[in-house]
Amino acid sequence: MSTEKHQDTIEPSQSRESVNIGKVDLENDGEIFKRGEGLEDFRTVGWIHTSVIFLKLIFATGVLTIPSAMYTLGAFPGAINVLGWQFLNTYCAQVQGQFRHNHPGCHSIADMGELVGGKIVKEVTGVLFLVAFIIVGASGMVGVSTALNALSNHALCTNYFSIIAALMVMLAASMRKFEKLAWITWAGFISVFVAVFIVVVGVTTLDRPAAAPQEGEFDFGYHVFGSPTFAAGITAASTIFCSGAGTSAFLPVMSEMRNPKDYKKAVNWCMGIVTAAYLSFSLVVYWYCGKWVASPSLGSAGPVIKKTAYGVGLIGLCVSGALFVHVSAKYVFVRILRNSRHLQANTITHWGVWFGVLAAMSLVSFLIASGVPIFNYLLSLAGSVAFAPLALGLPGWLWIYDHADYWKGTLWQKILYALHVVLILISIFLTIGGTYGVIVQIMDAYKDGSIDSAFSCADNSNSS
Known about the structure:
The chain contains 14 helices and 2 strands.
């Protein structure tokens, strides 16, 4: 393996061995979106807007679920999980960015899978990517429908609110370019951040948690160390991991950056803010609410604060769902039109494919949101089934591909090589164990009535 793969940045214009897979030269073809006369310019996003898009892709769903995961694990293991998983997610995001610098023809994580493993790996990776972001798109719809329920005092059947949420998310996701979405992500991030902050302040003013019995003794449920079953523990860990694991969605955004070299800076800003917010907010909410934390946690400070928080955060919850649906739709859109002039031309085919794919992704997300309406379980399912291989396993493989000679290099190089093999093993464990755990948890929830039958009118959205 050539040592040029170990450089910090590889320019597309540099001479290198060509690796052709199908019709696309992933080594030398350069950026997927070209610039030229008659072509719609997609590469228009600056690094600050990129940072905010990354923030909105990560921050929202996670901060709403970590406090209840901490109840399962205990405060100290929960905090270690937040720091540990966020460190790994940040590192793996940088690995993906560096790999794309080395191989600029890669638009998505599936393209990277094709380069290192061929067609089969590409298709498996593509399916996992769609599964992941369709599921988290569904979680965004659950968040919006929960907000509408709270603001309206449950004036309609939950499924009617889910339909309204799906339409809101699809409308917001319909903008073709990340540059256009970037402007609403500012409002989305600020709204969710302020909403969560309102709840954090709100829980500190209560004599006892809003959901706890307001008279007499009760079990507060705060533990420094929890004692969960394997299924409950792995589900909670997977939920925390998933809260920062959507880094494979960074790559399509990177393809629309004006200067992709700014990717590393955008990731560091995003993940630094997210980690600090997740750790501080979740610890405070769990400290004051114990086992009585709601999921999503915006309902943890009582009905008045709940309505205020959901009213302020509604835009952000909608934008989160929209970004997730947009990312999954953009992947399919590029796959369909990649070798066609319609990819960057304002033709009927271009717009027809875009809106058709967007509607399909929104419909599937809606069906999942209605079938598994418990917020935590949706995110844990996404984390174990799809994000574990995408955000941990495949980046480990990508690094090994670009550093294949390290296994016979210096001692330090061998250690680095071994650590990336361990990263792949961690992803396998989390995939198998996490999927088992969340399936057990969902089955138990149906048995004990925490989840009513699919598509029922019961308000299950706040179950933990």
